[in-house]
Amino acid sequence: MRKLIxxxxxxxxxxxxxxxxxxxxxxxGHIFQLNLPTYMSKTGGLNSAASIQYKSVxxxxxxxxxxxxxxxxxxxxxxxxxxxxxYEEFIKDFLVGEKNRKISKPKxxxxxxxxxxxxxxxxxxxxxxxxxxxLVGVVETEKAFYKVISWSAADKKDQFKADFQQIxxxxxx
Length: 173
Known about the structure:
Layout: H1 2-19, E1 41-42, E2 52-56, E3 61-69, H2 70-75, H3 83-91, E4 99-103, E5 107-111, E6 114-125, E7 130-140, E8 144-153, H4 157-169
Antiparallel strand pairs: 1-2, 2-3, 3-8, 4-6, 5-6, 6-7, 7-8
């Protein structure tokens, strides 16, 4: 009986010791908001790294958002001093090697505490045999960097660019 009481006592003491170990709370996931035109809907299968993907099959327009939190970037020692530096690091490899790849001069703007960069990118898709237009946007908030990529056939650029910009500039976290 004495051994049983000692055993229970040691188990109880161990639980107290473990319960007194300091802890730090971590949150999983990242929440942000984005407005899409009503003709678009959420989808999947466009980009496996994307947190939101959207499309309209009828209008033949597509897009997605990928985010990198500043905390996660600092853990892998990727510290960007500005949105421009993040944009340059991304755009240098975007569609590299594609036929007739053209990138416009980036347009930089700021709304409240959120910074934006956008540029037009086009290339000739040899499989589809058409020129593709991308509106490439990068957003910097206090918490994260976002890549907002929307695209259509280049001959529909004038029809959809304003909607793509509206998507980009609606992002908030």
